[in-house]
From TrEMBL, chain B:
It is found in: Nucleus. This is TAF6-like RNA polymerase II p300/CBP-associated factor-associated factor 65 kDa subunit 6L. Keywords: Methylation, Nucleus, Phosphoprotein, Transcription, Transcription regulation. The gene is TAF6L. The PCAF complex is composed of a number of TBP-associated factors (TAFS), such as TAF5, TAF5L, TAF6, TAF6L, TAF9, TAF10 and TAF12, PCAF, and also PCAF-associated factors (PAFs), such as TADA2L/ADA2, TADA3L/ADA3 and SPT3. Component of the STAGA transcription coactivator-HAT complex, at least composed of SUPT3H, GCN5L2, TAF5L, TAF6L, SUPT7L, TADA3L, TAD1L, TAF10, TAF12, TRRAP and TAF9. GO terms for cellular component: SAGA complex; SLIK (SAGA-like) complex; transcription factor TFIID complex. Functions as a component of the PCAF complex. The PCAF complex is capable of efficiently acetylating histones in a nucleosomal context. The PCAF complex could be considered as the human version of the yeast SAGA complex. With TAF5L, acts as an epigenetic regulator essential for somatic reprogramming. Regulates target genes through H3K9ac deposition and MYC recruitment which trigger MYC regulatory network to orchestrate gene expression programs to control embryonic stem cell state. Functions with MYC to activate target gene expression through RNA polymerase II pause release. Residues 478-497 have a biased composition (Low complexity). CDD domains: HFD_TAF6L, TAF6C. InterPro entries: ARM-type_fold (IPR016024), Histone-fold (IPR009072), TAF6 (IPR037796), TAF6_C (IPR011442), TAF6_C_sf (IPR046344), TAF_TATA-bd_Histone-like_dom (IPR004823). It comes from the Eukaryota.
C-alpha cells in the first residue's frame, strides 16, 4: 500500500497504516486508535475518522493493547510529547505499559486456543506481523507485539513480505496440503463445502512461502499439482501467481501485497471449524495451522453449515468474504425530504390547455413518488447530516420542470417496457471511453481516448458560450432577458470540445444543474469544466494515478473520484483538496456512485468487492462480495434501498443496503457490463454491456420476491433463487455498438449510448 | 524453465537475450542470460497484465500499443518514444535465418510530401440517435443495419459514382478506359465501394450481354487494383461475381459466335489476381471455391463451357489446385470428353468444338502442373519440397505417365525432350530425380515398346511456385499482361531467363543461354490432334547446332508456349482456339 501511495503526504500515509488494522480487525472496536491518530496529526483535510471517536469500545483488553501499541510506536519515533498526551488521555500508567508484554501474549494464546474470532492481536496485527519470528510454531509467539524493530514503522514491501521468511521443509508442503485435502474430502458432505474454502488461501500462501524462500522448483511442482483444484473464478489470480517464481518478482507485485496486507476472510460454521482445528492439532500440522492463524480470518458462526452454492455466491473477491461485522453498521438509506416547491399557477393553465385532468393527475403522482412525500422517511438521514448546498432559483425552476415531466411519466412494468433510443457515436475510432447524459436529457457528453471531452446538445437548442468580459460590460444588466443577452450567438454550435487532459478521459459526470462537467483522466487529475464558458475551471490533483471514475453528488457541490491508487476521494468543488479519503480497497477503484441521499458513496473495485462509505465520517459501512471479476457498473435504486452492480463476469448482482445482503443475481450478459440504470420509479433495471445488448430486468419482482422471503438477516446466509430467466424482460441488440451508458429520461424513455464499431 | 511441459505464456529464450546483449555489445554468460530471460518474461507478463486494465477502462476489446505504453509508463519503465499504431504490426520471418521481426518500412517523406493523392481527413466524431425499440418491442429497422449517417454520401461522391458507372457501362470505349483508370487509382472512393460492389453483383442480370459482363469484370479489376481500397468483406461479393462469369452457362454462350471463352479466361485471371493480391481476405474462401469447382467438374449434366470454366478456374488457383482437384478427377472426366471428341457427326460439331476447348484447357493446366511439380521437386531450385510433404501427392513420374496416357504426344510436345543441348549426352536426364520418365504403364499405352519422349526441360518459372499466393511478392501487372497478350502465342524473350540456373545448361555458347525446347514426340500441328489416337512413333531430331534450336522453336506452331516469361505466366494461353 505504501508503494501505491508514495506520492501522498506523510500524514496520510501514517493514517493508512492505522486504518489498515481497522479494516482487518473486528468491527469498529479499534476506533480509538484512529481517533487518536486524527488528533495527533491535527486532522488534516483528509482525516477520515475524526467522527468515529465517540463510538463505544467493545473490548477493553483489545483497546488497551491498541493504545499500548500506539504508545510504543510513538516512543520509537521519539514523539515524547505525544506519548505524554496519549498517556494522560487514555489514563495509562507506565506500569501498564511495562506489563503489556505479558498481557498480550496471554491474550494471544487464549485466542489461539479458543476462539479465533476474538483473536487479540488484530489492532496491532500489523506491528506483530512485522516481527514474526522465524521459527514461530505456536500462535502465542506470533502475537507478541514487543519486537517491532526500528525502521519498520512503515510497512514497506520487505517488511510485509518478511512474514514469509519462516523456514519449513519445502518438501513437506506437498504432504501437508495433500493430507489436509484428504481430510477435507473425507469429512461429511455438509462440512466439506465450508472447509473447502480453506483451500484457495492456503494454496496461495503456501505457494508464496515457497517462492519467497527460493524453493523455486518445489513451488512450481506445488503449483502444478494443486492449482487445478481451485475454484474456476480464481483463475485470473492464479495466472498471476503462476508467473511468479522468483523472490524478486514478489517485490512490487500489487496482487501479492494485497494478499499479505489483508487477511483472507472465511465464514465457517462452528462445527466445521472445530473439525478442522481438531484435525490440524491431531496431526501436528503446524505449518498449515500457522498460516491459518496468521493470514486467514475465520469468521465463525453458530448454526447450519452453508451449502456449496451459498458459499459460491458470496466468494470470489480478492480477500475472501466480508466479515459479518463489516456490514452491521446502520445505514440511513432513505431519501431526504424534498423541499416544498409550489407549482406556479400559470402551470395549471398550461396543463388545462393540454386538456389533462390536472387535479387527478397530481395526486397519484405524489403518491408514486412515495418516499419523496412530506413525511420524513424513518430510514433517512437527518436533513442536515451532511451540509448540502442551498437551492438556487434556477434549481427550483428545474425542480418544477422535473415535476411537470414526472406527471407525463410512463409507469413501466413487465407489460409496458420502455422504448429505447440509441445514441450512436460515429467515427469515434474505438476512442470513446465514457458517456454521461444530463438528468433532463438535454446534453450528452463523451470522454475520449484522445484526451478530449466533447459535449453535444441533443435538443435543437445550440450550445453557446458566454460573451467575453469586454462584451459583457456593454450589456444592460437591468433588462429582463439579461440571461439571454450574455450568451454569444456567434459561438452557437451543436457540439463543443473541451481540451485540457493529457490522457484518455475515463469518467465524466454532469452536475445536476447542468452548469458544470467533471472529467477524470489517465493523467491523474479530475477537471471541472464550465458549461457556460466551455473552459476548464479547476484541476483537482491528488490521485497521481489514473482516475477511473468520477461522479457528482445528486445535490451538486460534492463529487467523488476513484482510481488506480485504490483510494476514493470525496471533494467539494470549491476545495482543491479532498474532504474525505476512502481507503480500504485492495485494488483499483473502477467505479464510483453517490447514494441518492448524498450521504453515502459506493465504490466498485478490481478486488471484486463493492464498498459503501459514509460521507460523514469516512467509514466503510458495507462490503459486498460475490462478484468474480472487476466491477464496472453500479446503480442505486431510486428509493435508495438497493444497489445493483455489474462486473466483467457478465453478471448483475442486487444488494439490499439496509441488511447488507446479496438479494439477487441476474445472469444473461456474455461480456462486461458497463452500465446499469434503474427506471425513474425503480420498476425496471436496464443493463448495458460490451456484448452489444441492452437487457431489461424486472426489478420490482426481484425485490418483492425477497421481501416475502423470511430472510435471516442475522446469519446473512441467503439462498438465491435461480430466476434470472423469469426476471429478464427483454434483450435488445444494438448495431455492433457496445453499450457504454444508459439513462432514463424523466418520462422513462430509455436512452442508450455507445460508439459504433464497424 | 524452458522445458516446462505446459506453457501458460510465451517465453523469451535465452538465445534471444544473448543476441540482444550482443547487439548492445555485452557478452553474457549462459546462466546470466537464463536468469535475464526469465525475468524479462515475468516483467513482460506483468506489463501485459496491467495494460489490460487500460483496455478495459477504454471499453475496448482490442489491446493496443497505447495500452501497453501506458502500463509501462505507470510502472516507471523508461518510456518508449514514438507513436503507437492502431493496427497490428505485421510480424514477418526470414526462413533461412530463423529470424522474426516486425516489419518496419522506411517512409519516403519526400514522396509523401509531394504526393498528389492527399488522404481524406478523418470524419468528424458525431452523435446520431435512432429509436431502436418502441415500447420495448419491434424494431423500426432491421437488425444489424449500419446507421444511415455512416453511409450518407456527399454530393460529390454521388456524382462521381453516377459518372463512373455511366462511363463504364456506356458506349464510349475511351471514356470507359478513363473511368477504369480513375477507379484504379482514386484514393477517396472508399465510401462508394459498397455501391460499386452492388453494381458488379448485377452480373447475374446481364448474362446475355458479353460486353456488359466484360465491363463489369474490368470494374472488378480496377477495384481490386486500387491500392487505397480495403475490400474487407466485400471481396466475397466480388469473388462470387467473378465465379459467376467463370462457371455459369451464360445466356450469351448459347450463340456460338459469342466469345464467352475469353470472358471466362479473363474472369479466371481476375480470380487468380484476387487471390494473389488479397490472399489475406479470401483465404477462407479458397476451399469453398475449390469445392464448387470440383462440383461443376464432376457434374456431367453441366455444359462443356461450365467445365471449361472449372478447369481454367482451377488453373487460376494454382497448380496445387489442379493437382488436388483436376488431376484425380481426370480419369473419370476423360471418358466423357473422349466420347464428345470422338463423335464426328455434324450435329455434334458445336459440342465437339467446345470439347476441344475443354481439352485444350486441361492440357494447359496439366502442363503447368507437371512443370511446377518438377520444379518444386528439383533440389537446385526453390521452393524446397517440404510444402508438399503434408499431403501425399502422386509422384511426378507416375503422374506424367498417367497424363501421357491421356494426352499422348501432345503433352510431350510441350516439353523439350530427347537429348539436351549439345553437351548433354542423349537420353541422360539433367537431374536424376527431375524428369526421368519410366515407360508408361502397359494398360495406358498400347505401344509399350516405343521409347517415350523424355521430359527434360521444365524451366518455366511462374511467380506462384507453391500455389500459395499470400507469401509471394506482388503479382505482375494484370493490365500489362492482358494488353500485350495475344492468342497466337508468339513468344517473346523475357526476363525469365535470368531466373534459370545457367549451370544446368552447359552450353558452349558464350552469350546468354538461349532457352528453347526440343520437341520429342510428334508435333501438334494444324490438325490439332494430340490425343491418344495420334500418338505415333517418333524419332527425335537432334538439333544440328546450338543456334538452330532457337530458330526452330520459333517456327513451331505449338499450342501454348513453354518458355513464357514470368510476366506472362497468367496470360490466357489456355484458350486454345483450334480451327476445325
Amino acid at each position: 500500500m505504501a508503494a501505491v501511495q508514495g506520492g501522498l503526504i506523510d500524514t496520510e500515509e501514517e493514517k493508512d497504516i492505522k486504518t489498515e488494522p481497522a479494516n482487518d480487525g473486528c468491527g469498529n472496536n479499534n476506533n480509538n486508535n484512529t481517533a487518536n491518530d486524527g488528533r495527533l496529526l491535527n486532522a488534516s483535510p483528509g482525516s477520515i475518522s475524526s467522527g468515529g471517536s465517540n463510538k463505544p469500545a467493545t473490548g477493553a483488553l483489545e483497546d488497551q493493547q491498541t493504545l499500548l501499541a500506539v504508545l510504543q510506536f510513538l516512543k520509537k519515533n521519539n514523539l515524547s510529547e505525544s506519548v505524554e498526551i496519549l498517556r494522560r488521555e487514555a489514563g495509562l500508567s507506565e506500569d501498564t505499559e511495562d506489563s503489556k508484554g505479558l498481557d498480550s501474549s496471554g491474550a494471544g494464546s487464549g485466542g489461539a486456543a479458543g476462539n479465533v474470532d476474538s483473536e487479540s492481536g488484530d489492532a496491532n496485527s500489523l506491528l506483530s506481523r512485522v516481527s514474526v519470528s522465524s521459527s514461530a510454531v505456536s500462535a502465542s509467539a506470533v502475537q507478541a507485539p514487543s519486537k517491532a524493530g526500528a525502521g519498520e514503522d512503515q510497512p514497506d514491501v520487505n517488511v510485509v513480505l518478511s512474514a514469509y521468511s519462516q523456514q519449513g521443509d519445502p518438501a513437506l508442503y506437498d504432504v501437508y496440503y495433500s493430507s489436509l485435502k484428504k481430510f477435507i474430502e473425507s469429512v461429511l458432505d455438509c462440512h466439506r463445502a465450508e472447509l473447502s474454502q480453506v483451500f484457495y488461501p492456503l494454496f496461495v500462501h503456501m505457494y508464496l512461502e515457497l517462492v519467497y524462500n527460493n524453493h523455486e522448483n518445489e513451488a512450481k511442482a506445488f503449483f502444478e499439482k494443486f492449482s487445478g483444484d481451485q475454484e474456476c473464478y480464481y483463475e485470473d489470480d492464479l495466472r498471476v501467481l503462476s508467473g511468479m517464481t522468483k523472490k524478486e518478482h514478489m517485490r512490487g507485485n500489487e496482487t501479492l501485497l494485497d494478499f499479505r496486507t489483508s487477511k483472507f476472510v472465511l465464514r465457517i460454521s462452528r462445527d466445521s471449524y472445530q473439525l478442522l482445528k481438531r484435525h490440524l492439532q491431531e496431526r501436528q500440522n503446524n505449518q498449515i495451522w500457522n498460516i491459518i492463524q496468521e493470514h486467514l480470518y475465520i469468521d465463525i458462526f453458530d448454526g447450519m453449515p452453508r451449502s456449496k452454492s451459498q458459499i459460491d455466491a458470496m466468494s470470489g473477491s480478492l480477500a475472501g468474504e466480508a466479515k459479518r461485522e463489516a456490514n452491521k453498521a446502520k445505514v440511513f438509506y432513505g431519501l431526504l425530504k424534498e423541499p416544498e416547491i409550489e407549482v406556479p399557477l400559470d402551470d395549471e393553465d398550461e396543463e388545462a390547455e393540454n386538456e389533462e385532468g390536472k387535479p387527478k393527475k397530481k395526486k397519484p403522482k405524489k403518491d408514486s413518488m412515495g418516499s419523496k412525500s412530506k413525511k420524513q422517511d424513518p430510514n433517512a438521514p437527518s436533513q442536515n447530516r451532511i451540509p448540502l448546498p442551498e437551492l438556487k432559483d434556477s434549481d427550483k425552476l428545474d425542480k418544477i420542470m422535473y415535476m411537470k415531466e414526472a406527471t407525463k411519466r410512463i409507469r413501466l412494468g413487465p407489460d409496458t417496457l420502455p422504448s429505447i433510443c440509441f445514441y450512436s457515436f460515429l467515427n469515434a475510432y474505438q476512442g470513446l471511453t465514457a458517456v454521461d447524459v444530463t438528468d433532463d436529457s438535454s446534453l450528452i457528453a463523451g470522454g475520449f481516448a484522445d484526451s478530449t471531452v466533447r459535449v453535444w446538445s441533443v435538443t435543437p437548442k445550440k450550445l453557446r458560450k458566454v460573451k467575453s468580459a469586454a462584451d459583457l460590460s456593454l450589456i444592460d444588466k437591468e433588462s429582463d432577458d439579461v440571461l439571454e443577452r450574455i450568451m454569444d450567438e456567434k459561438t452557437a454550435s451543436e457540439s463543443k470540445i473541451l481540451y485540457g487532459h493529457s490522457g484518455p478521459v475515463y469518467g465524466i459526470s454532469f452536475s445536476p444543474d447542468r452548469n458544470y462537467l467533471l472529467s477524470s483522466s489517465e493523467d491523474g487529475t479530475v477537471r471541472l469544466w464550465s458549461l457556460q464558458t466551455f473552459t476548464c475551471l479547476v484541476g483537482y490533483k491528488g490521485h497521481n494515478y489514473p482516475v477511473w471514475d468520477t461522479q457528482f453528488s445528486p445535490y451538486g457541490y460534492y463529487f467523488v473520484s476513484g482510481g488506480h491508487d485504490r483510494v476514493a476521494r470525496l471533494w467539494a468543488t470549491d476545495h482543491y483538496q479532498p474532504l474525505r479519503m476512502f481507503s480500504g480497497h485492495l485494488a483499483d477503484i473502477t467505479c464510483t456512485r453517490f447514494h441518492p441521499n448524498s450521504n453515502y458513496v459506493a465504490t466498485g473495485s478490481s478486488d471484486r468487492t463493492i464498498r459503501l462509505w459514509d460521507v460523514l465520517n469516512g467509514n466503510c459501512v458495507r462490503i459486498f462480495t460475490g462478484h468474480k471479476g472487476p466491477i464496472h457498473a453500479l446503480a442505486f435504486s431510486p428509493n435508495g434501498k438497493f444497489l445493483a452492480s455489474g462486473a466483467t463476469d457478465g453478471r448483475v448482482l442486487l444488494w439490499d443496503i439496509g441488511h447488507g445482503l446479496m438479494i439477487g443475481e441476474l445472469k444473461g450478459h456474455t461480456d462486461t457490463i458497463y452500465s446499469l440504470k434503474f427506471s425513474r420509479d425503480g420498476e425496471i433495471l436496464a443493463s448495458g454491456s460490451m456484448d452489444n445488448t441492452v437487457r431489461l430486468w424486472d426489478a420490482m419482482k426481484a425485490f418483492d420476491d425477497l421481501e416475502t422471503d423470511d430472510f435471516t438477516a442475522a446469519t446473512g446466509h441467503i439462498h438465491l433463487p435461480e430466476n434470472s430467466q423469469e426476471l429478464l424482460l427483454g434483450t435488445y441488440m444494438s448495431k455492433s455498438t457496445p453499450v457504454v451508458h444508459l439513462h432514463f429520461t424523466r418520462r422513462n424513455l430509455l436512452l442508450a449510448a455507445g460508439a459504433y464499431n464497424p | 524453465m524452458a522445458d516446462r511441459e505446459e506453457r501458460r505464456f510465451a517465453e523469451v529464450p535465452r538465445e534471444s537475450v544473448k543476441l540482444m546483449a550482443e547487439s548492445a555489445g555485452v557478452e553474457l554468460g549462459d546462466d546470466v542470460a537464463a536468469l535475464l530471460a526469465e525475468d524479462v518474461c515475468y516483467r513482460l507478463r506483468e506489463a501485459t497484465q496491467s495494460s489490460s486494465q487500460f483496455m478495459r477502462h477504454a471499453k475496448r476489446r482490442k489491446l493496443t500499443v497505447e495500452d501497453f505504453n501506458r502500463a509501462l509508463r505507470w510502472s516507471n519503465v523508461e518510456a518508449i518514444c514514438g507513436y503507437g499504431a492502431q493496427d497490428a504490426l505485421p510480424f514477418r520471418s526470414v526462413k533461412e535465418g530463423e529470424l522474426f521481426f516486425i516489419e518496419d518500412r522506411d517512409i519516403n517523406l519526400v514522396e509523401l510530401a509531394l504526393a498528389t493523392n492527399i488522404p481524406k481527413g478523418c470524419a468528424e466524431t458525431m452523435v446520431r440517435v435512432n429509436v431502436s425499440y418502441l415500447d420495448g418491442k419491434g424494431n423500426l429497422e432491421p437488425q444489424g443495419t449500419v446507421p444511415s449517417a455512416v453511409q450518407s454520401l456527399s454530393d460529390d461522391l454521388l456524382k462521381y459514382y453516377q459518372q463512373i458507372t455511366r462511363a463504364i457501362l456506356g458506349e464510349d470505349p475511351h471514356l470507359m478506359k478513363v473511368a477504369l483508370l480513375d477507379l484504379q487509382s482514386n484514393s477517396k472512393i472508399a465510401a462508394l465501394l459498397p455501391y460499386f460492389v452492388y453494381v458488379i453483383s448485377g452480373v447475374k442480370s446481364v448474362s446475355h450481354d458479353l460486353e456488359q459482363l466484360n465491363r463489369l469484370l474490368h470494374m472488378v479489376k480496377s477495384l481490386v487494383q486500387n491500392p487505397y481500397l480495403y475490400l474487407g468483406s466485400y471481396v466475397r461479393s466480388l469473388v462470387s461475381s467473378v465465379m459467376y462469369c467463370i462457371l455459369e452457362p451464360l445466356a450469351a454462350s448459347i450463340n456460338p459466335l459469342n466469345d464467352h471463352w475469353t470472358l471466362r479466361d479473363y474472369a479466371a485471371l481476375l480470380l487468380s489476381h484476387i487471390f494473389w493480391t488479397h490472399g489475406d481476405l479470401v483465404s477462407g474462401l479458397y476451399h469453398q471455391i475449390l469445392l464448387s469447382l470440383q462440383k461443376v467438374l464432376s457434374d456431367p449434366v453441366r455444359p462443356l463451357c461450365s467445365h471449361y470454366g472449372a478447369v481454367v478456374g482451377l488453373h487460376a488457383l494454382g497448380w496445387k489446385a489442379v493437382e488436388r482437384v483436376l488431376y484425380p478427377h481426370l480419369p473419370a472426366y476423360w471418358a466423357n470428353l473422349q466420347a464428345v471428341l470422338d463423335d464426328y457427326s455434324v450435329s455434334n460439331a458445336q459440342v465437339k468444338a467446345d470439347g476441344h476447348k475443354v481439352y485444350g484447357a486441361i492440357l494447359v493446366a496439366v502442363e503447368r502442373l507437371l512443370k511446377m511439380k518438377a520444379l518444386s521437386l528439383s533440389p537446385g531450385l526453390s521452393p524446397p519440397p517440404e510444402p508438399l510433404s503434408e499431403w501425399t501427392p502422386v509422384p511426378l513420374p507416375a503422374m506424367y505417365c498417367e497424363l501421357y496416357s491421356f494426352f499422348g504426344d501432345s503433352l510431350a510436345v510441350r516439353f523439350s525432350t530427347g537429348p539436351g543441348f549439345g553437351s548433354y549426352p542423349p537420353c541422360t536426364p539433367p537431374q536424376p530425380n527431375d524428369a526421368r520418365k519410366d515407360p508408361p504403364g502397359p494398360a495406358a499405352n498400347p505401344d509399350t515398346t516405343r521409347k517415350m519422349p523424355q521430359l527434360t526441360a521444365n524451366l518455366n518459372i511462374s511467380p506462384r511456385q507453391d500455389g500459395s499466393p499470400r507469401t509471394e511478392p506482388p503479382p505482375p501487372s494484370l493490365a500489362r499482361s492482358r494488353s500485350s497478350s495475344s492468342r497466337s502465342g508468339q513468344r517473346s524473350a523475357g526476363p525469365s531467363r535470368d531466373v534459370f540456373p545457367k549451370a544446368r545448361f552447359t552450353t558452349p555458347q558464350t552469350g546468354p543461354p538461349a532457352f528453347s525446347f526440343l520437341i520429342g514426340g510428334r508435333q501438334m500441328g494444324r490438325r490439332c490432334q494430340g490425343r491418344r489416337p495420334f500418338q505415333t512413333i517418333f524419332a527425335p531430331t537432334p538439333p544440328l547446332s546450338a543456334v538452330l534450336p532457337r530458330t526452330y522453336a520459333h517456327k513451331l506452331p505449338v499450342i501454348g508456349r513453354v518458355g513464357k516469361p514470368v510476366r506472362r505466366w497468367a496470360c490466357s494461353h489456355y484458350s486454345l482456339h483450334l480451327p476445325l
